[in-house]
Amino acid sequence: VHEGEFIANHKAVNNPELSPLFRMIDFAQRNNTVASLTAEDVSIALGQGAGVSARGEVVHQTERPVNVMQNNIDTTPIDRLANILEDGIVADVILDGERGLHKKYTSYQKLLKNPRR
């Protein structure tokens, strides 16, 4: 952590009331818009007004998705995908045979030696 940064502890991260706020901040950091967040944006993330949703959409309170306004926030497909990516994706590799790594690598080496023009 650098000067001017902070870390949220596990209690804050696991608090469903704060989850929309953390998602909004994360979205804004990934899109280089975090410096332009306003109090109104925080209000909408917490379901209290109009502003920018956790997904970066401009919305008004009446347009808020139901799952963000509930205490039990449903996990969205994007959240599930993020969790899968954080945990890593298992990849099986075939070593031998027609589709095996050895045959494909050998073919690749031949292409490098004799590139088509």
Question: Helix and strand layout, with pairings?
Answer:
Blueprint lengths: L9 H4 L5 H12 L8 H7 L5 E2 L5 E2 L6 H4 L7 H11 L13 H13 L4
Antiparallel strand pairs: 1-2
Task: Label this structure with key terms.
mainly alpha, two-stranded antiparallel ribbon, 6 helices, 117 residues, 3% strand
Question: What is this structure, in a nutshell?
Answer:
It contains six helices and two strands; from the N terminus they run H-H-H-E-E-H-H-H. It has helices spanning 10-13, 19-30, 39-45, 66-69, 77-87, 101-113, and strands at residues 51-52, 58-59.
Tell me the radius of gyration: 22 Å
**Would you tell me the structural class of the helices and strands?**
mainly alpha
Q: Estimate the mean pLDDT confidence.
A: 77
Q: Main beta sheet, described?
A: 2 strands, antiparallel
Low-pLDDT residue intervals, each spanning 5 or more residues: 62-73
State the end-to-end distance: 51 Å
Which sequence of strands runs across the widest sheet? 1-2
Shape: elongated
Strand content: under 5%
Number of β-strand runs:
2
Quaternary structure state of the chains depicted: single chain
